[in-house]
Amino acid sequence: MILERFFDFYLERISPELRQQLLALLPPEKAQSSGELAGMFRRDDPEALEFLLNFHLRMADIRCQEPEYCIMFDDPQNICFPFFIGYVLEHLPESIQKQAYEHFGTSRMEAIVEQLTKSADARNWFRENISCSLEQEHLFALSEVIALINFSSGGEYSFLNLVYPGIKEMTGLVLDAGCGMGFSSLIMSRYTDVVAVDACLSRLHRARGLAVKMADSDSEVRRLLNLIKTEMGEMNREKAGVHIEEVLQRPQGEIRFLNASLDKLPLEGPLFNGIVCLDVLEHTFDPDAVVREFSRLAKPGALVWITVPNANGEYYQSLEENSRGATFPAMLHLHHWEIEELNHLFGKNGFEPVTVRPFDLLPSADVTRVKAGHPHRGDWPDSNDEKVFLQLFAVYRRV
User: Fold this and answer.
1) Is the pLDDT of residue 112 over 80?
2) What is the pTM of this model?
3) Lowest CB count within 10 Å: 9, 135, 276, 341, which one?
């Protein structure tokens, strides 16, 4: 299994001192092995959650103190880089695999990794021609390893700033579509009942264990928020408008966890009064199928909260990728939308827009650099003082 395979790889390459520190996080009765480490990420009991919190707190320290040993994705100087390249090459369709071997002039994984490590051009070619060909099941498998990087899953900031104010007024059942480690589900469950869905099994185990522990201890909620603040840096609860004491005073509702792909949910509809899908739709193979599922499962009048990258965001990411020689598409994004395209996607599936607006401001220093090569640069502001946004936030209502 991929986690056992990864930890075998990782533990062989870190320092003996760090290896011992990580293995010492395991419960005392467990053998100190890569298999036991992997197993902790598949459990959802309080003991496993305690391990996960300690593991990710230690990883946060490693990123600051020993960055060469931290778990990173798509960094050619990181010790984990050969693992990801090897996994992709092994699981490519045969025709794409052959194309890669011909391009690099070898089928030896070590030689290919060496070329990719040394050459940004080689990494850009790999990203544009090879890594985008990985099939969905193997992307899901890779996500199990990527989930080791942070305890948080990326959508927390968007949830706190954009969704939380509206969710507080919700009644009925809410779908957390792509729940990650379950932070949004936990906050929402203090106001309404939640069905939390994710295709990444290790994140779902994390979310389920977190829900159990959070229900028992308010101090764990604070500990969790401190870890997320450490990982996300810029996030703070005052800026996001979350009043933790208010949340803690409310009883926790029911959360049902479901391991499933969003384009084929094993649920009967209409069922939901609200659907939250943040930083997720761009990762799916068939967004139209996902939105059709939302339409099938949403009650009349139900609201959908969604965030997605726009063309500006994708182009900005592509500049960053090309400049550093990224081997994989930005955060494994497969799609982006403009406002009209997003409205069309939801409109043809029975939704009407309530609000659709850009967010995530591009730093002004980068506007000139991005505008110079943008394929639609005529649509960009004439002045560098104008605001350029990288993502879209939308709320749609089921008609």
Assistant:
1) yes
2) 0.77
3) 135
Is the same domain home to 123 and 12?
no
User: Which structural domain range is residue 141 located in?
Assistant: 81-146
* pLDDT of 214 higher than 80: no
Q: CATH number of the domain that 303 lies in?
A: 3.40.50.150
Say which residues have a Cβ less than 8 Å from residue 225's Cβ, sequence separation at least 6.
Answer: 237, 244
Tell me the C-alpha distance between 329 and 249, whole Å: 42
Asked if 70 and 62 touch (Cβ cutoff 8 Å), the reply is yes
My answer on whether 201 and 56 are in the same domain is no
Q: How far is CA 309 from CA 42, 84, 338, 339, in A?
A: 31, 25, 8, 10
The reply to whether 14 and 50 lie within a common domain is yes
Mean pLDDT on 63-90: 90
Cβ neighbors of 279 (< 8 A, separation 6 or more) are 154, 155, 158, 178, 307
Interacting residues of 301 by C-beta distance below 8 A, sequence separation 6+: 273, 397, 398
Which residue, chain included where needed, has tokens 């060909």? 133
> What CA–CA distance (Å, rounded) separates 282 from 305?
14
Instruction: Output the six-digit token pair for 350.
Output: 């029975």
In a domain, 75, yes or no: no
Residue 151 inside a domain? The answer is no
End-to-end CA distance of the chain: 44
Q: Which helix (H) or strand (E) holds 195?
A: strand 193-198
* Residue 135 CB coordination number (10 Å): 12
Pair (259, 182) in one structural domain: yes
CB 330 within 8 Å of CB 317: yes
Per residue in 254-270, pLDDT (tens digit) is: 999 999 999 999 999 89
How many angstroms separate the CA atoms of 2 and 202, rounded?
Answer: 11
**Cα angle: 352, vertex 354, 358; to 5 degrees:** 110
Please tell me the total count of domains within the chain.
3
Among 69, 96, 120, the domain-final residue is 69
Regarding predicted confidence, which is higher, 64 or 350?
A: 350
